[in-house]
Amino acid sequence: xxxxxxxxxRNDPSFRVVITDSRNSTKSxxxxxxxxxxxxxxxxxxxxxxxxxxxxxxxxxxxNLLIRNGIIAGKKIDVSKRGNPPAGGAPASAPIAxxx
Length: 100
What we know:
Blueprint: E1 2-9, E2 12-19, E3 33-37, E4 42-43, H1 45-53, H2 60-68
Antiparallel strand pairs: 1-2, 2-3, 3-4
Protein backbone atom coordinates (compact mmCIF):
# COMPACT_ATOMS: atom_id res chain seq x y z
CA UNK A 1 0.00 0.00 0.00
CA UNK A 2 1.26 3.48 -0.85
CA UNK A 3 0.26 5.96 1.85
CA UNK A 4 1.29 9.10 3.69
CA UNK A 5 3.23 8.82 6.95
CA UNK A 6 3.24 11.78 9.31
CA UNK A 7 6.64 12.82 10.61
CA UNK A 8 7.88 15.99 12.21
CA UNK A 9 7.24 17.72 15.49
CA ARG A 10 4.06 18.63 17.26
CA ASN A 11 2.24 21.42 15.37
CA ASP A 12 4.82 21.13 12.56
CA PRO A 13 3.81 18.11 10.47
CA SER A 14 5.65 16.76 7.47
CA PHE A 15 4.54 13.81 5.39
CA ARG A 16 6.50 11.04 3.69
CA VAL A 17 5.14 8.90 0.90
CA VAL A 18 5.91 5.32 1.94
CA ILE A 19 5.33 1.76 0.80
CA THR A 20 3.94 -0.33 3.64
CA ASP A 21 2.03 -3.51 4.27
CA SER A 22 -1.69 -2.74 4.49
CA ARG A 23 -1.89 -4.57 7.82
CA ASN A 24 0.45 -2.05 9.47
CA SER A 25 -1.04 0.89 11.30
CA THR A 26 -0.30 4.33 9.89
CA LYS A 27 1.32 5.32 13.18
CA SER A 28 3.35 2.13 13.68
CA UNK A 29 6.31 3.61 11.81
CA UNK A 30 6.88 0.36 9.90
CA UNK A 31 7.41 0.75 6.19
CA UNK A 32 9.17 -1.04 3.38
CA UNK A 33 10.52 1.94 1.45
CA UNK A 34 10.31 5.74 1.38
CA UNK A 35 9.40 6.80 -2.16
CA UNK A 36 8.84 10.51 -1.72
CA UNK A 37 8.09 13.56 0.34
CA UNK A 38 4.68 15.25 0.22
CA UNK A 39 5.82 18.69 1.42
CA UNK A 40 8.34 19.31 -1.34
CA UNK A 41 6.50 17.04 -3.79
CA UNK A 42 9.54 14.88 -4.47
CA UNK A 43 8.42 11.51 -5.75
CA UNK A 44 10.53 8.63 -7.08
CA UNK A 45 8.57 7.83 -10.23
CA UNK A 46 10.48 4.65 -11.07
CA UNK A 47 9.99 3.11 -7.64
CA UNK A 48 6.32 4.07 -7.43
CA UNK A 49 5.59 2.51 -10.83
CA UNK A 50 7.59 -0.58 -9.78
CA UNK A 51 5.51 -1.05 -6.63
CA UNK A 52 2.25 -0.44 -8.48
CA UNK A 53 3.29 -3.13 -10.97
CA UNK A 54 3.85 -5.46 -8.00
CA UNK A 55 0.26 -4.85 -6.86
CA UNK A 56 0.57 -1.97 -4.38
CA UNK A 57 -2.61 0.08 -4.06
CA UNK A 58 -2.48 3.83 -3.42
CA UNK A 59 -4.75 5.60 -0.94
CA UNK A 60 -7.17 8.09 -2.46
CA UNK A 61 -5.01 11.09 -1.50
CA UNK A 62 -1.86 9.52 -2.93
CA UNK A 63 -3.79 8.52 -6.06
CA ASN A 64 -4.74 12.17 -6.62
CA LEU A 65 -1.16 13.28 -5.92
CA LEU A 66 0.21 10.83 -8.50
CA ILE A 67 -2.27 12.01 -11.11
CA ARG A 68 -1.46 15.67 -10.42
CA ASN A 69 2.27 14.98 -10.88
CA GLY A 70 1.76 12.98 -14.08
CA ILE A 71 3.01 9.67 -12.69
CA ILE A 72 -0.22 7.81 -13.45
CA ALA A 73 -3.17 8.65 -15.70
CA GLY A 74 -6.79 8.60 -14.69
CA LYS A 75 -9.50 10.58 -12.94
CA LYS A 76 -9.08 12.05 -9.49
CA ILE A 77 -11.05 10.60 -6.60
CA ASP A 78 -13.23 12.86 -4.46
CA VAL A 79 -11.71 12.71 -0.97
CA SER A 80 -13.80 15.44 0.62
CA LYS A 81 -15.96 14.29 3.51
CA ARG A 82 -18.92 16.51 2.73
CA GLY A 83 -21.32 15.48 0.03
CA ASN A 84 -20.85 11.75 0.56
CA PRO A 85 -24.10 9.79 0.91
CA PRO A 86 -25.04 8.38 4.32
CA ALA A 87 -23.76 4.91 5.15
CA GLY A 88 -27.27 3.42 5.12
CA GLY A 89 -27.50 3.83 1.36
CA ALA A 90 -30.82 5.69 1.45
CA PRO A 91 -30.85 9.41 0.74
CA ALA A 92 -31.10 11.56 3.86
CA SER A 93 -34.20 13.37 2.59
CA ALA A 94 -36.21 10.18 1.89
CA PRO A 95 -39.58 10.12 3.68
CA ILE A 96 -39.98 7.51 6.38
CA ALA A 97 -42.86 5.14 5.74
CA UNK A 98 -45.28 4.82 8.65
CA UNK A 99 -47.37 1.68 9.08
CA UNK A 100 -51.15 2.23 8.70
